[in-house]
Amino acid sequence: MAGYGLSKSRITAWRQCPKRLWLQIHRRKLLEESDQVKRLYQIGNEVGEIAQRLCPDGILIEDQNNLAAAIVATKSALEVNPNRPLFEATFQHEGLLVRADVLLPTRKGYRMTEVKSSASVKSYHIDDCAVQAWVLKQNNIRLASVELAYIDKSFVYQGDGNYHGLLKAVRLDAEVKELLDQVPLWVSGARTTLAGDEPCIEPGAQCDDPFECPFKAYCMRDMDIPEEPEYPLGVLSGLRESLKHELHELGYHDARHVPVEYLNDKQSMIQRASKTGKPKFDKHAAKQGMAALPYPRYYLDFETVSPAVPRWAGTSPSSPHVPFQWSCHIEYAPGKLRHDMFLDVSGNDPRQECAESLIRVLAKDGPVLVFSSFETARITELAQRFPDLAPALLSINERVVDLLPMARKHYYHPAMKGSWSLKAVLPTIAPDLRYDELEVSNGGEAQHAYSEIIHPETAQDRKRQLTESLHEYCALDTLAMVRLAWFLEGRKTNKGGDYAAQ
Ligand code: SF4
Which atom of ligand 1 is nearest to the CA of 20? Predict the structure, then answer.
């Protein structure tokens, strides 16, 4: 049947929702791909490259932008080098095109390995393998086995370029065999969908399973979505999902209307604030807590990166918080601030310099103010990594004062909507400090910026711009903590503060 080219990912899209595939081909401009999805592509590429490095003497089929050429190159490689592994071997059958991540020759035929960057086998992975195996069989490729390789989270990289053990493989011969008869049905179903009009399919559970569909905005544009109350049940911090469900069933959708017997003390406080619109602030207790803190005060925040493929010795996919940046506002006398920062964008292991610079700046007297236990955990990890620096690092941890429990205990504003994150608290105490005007405005974007900076193909101008954005973002995080501390302390003026020369 003449028609649109199909691929493994298009079959997956059709299996998720025929309308998704139809829109992908006929209304592509409507597609809204999230940054998260783009990041997943990038991770997938990194893991694919590792799989190739693990298989020496392999031949990479280039020409991936010219599919006809890739198919010819695959055919030629199979004929000329039947005993060498092939990467991205490209086949098609009746317009369905697939690329096999790794084809390894064995005595009984080829072992086909599909490489995934996830940490477990998902059912759509098996579908992917079946589609590939079916096309290869139609091309008379003798398959000895079909495998899925995925990330072993227990792998610890030694820093020596050796990634053996990062991927663990599972054989899926039986599962794939069971699905082989289904594949031609999927193919003809997808073709029928594409040849017809836009399918009438209402949004539902399929929109997020197995992936978030990039056409949700389009499909949900005319839906009669009931307006969410200003204070939905979600603002009742710590409300169990089962109780939330029960309350919805009972007809309670607004946190202000929930009978008090369902709520604990904190949730009752949130409900009261939501009803009255007035913040709760135990000024006296907050001031007392803060007054006990001497000067200088160090306000500290880390930015970390979590590469799926570990880059540095001692890191693993399951212990991924590698600090590449810290910001510290030092309040050396009330209202007198100095700012210090560390940022390593060389792409080399940033941990030692991060630890040493931290000690240089913080290894003095004075409380180290943080917001959550994240910084303490990172300092402990640095101490484990560098035993000679451990005493100095751990002494920093002994001085840590966490502002988060203090804020939780003494302050709540209804605009925080049940969250004590710094980004929820800040607009209610220091609206002049804004994250939404920054290019990098959260931890995920900071990670992404870092990865882009250290990528060898990123242009110098872009690197400079992103580096500047990281400076601004991390500095704002610690300035926000300064302002929170001043607020809790009840200082009359919350703005500014004097900055000494850097
Ligand atoms: S948003 Fe939902 S209904 Fe629309 S195409 Fe995607 S999966 Fe289908």
Answer: 5
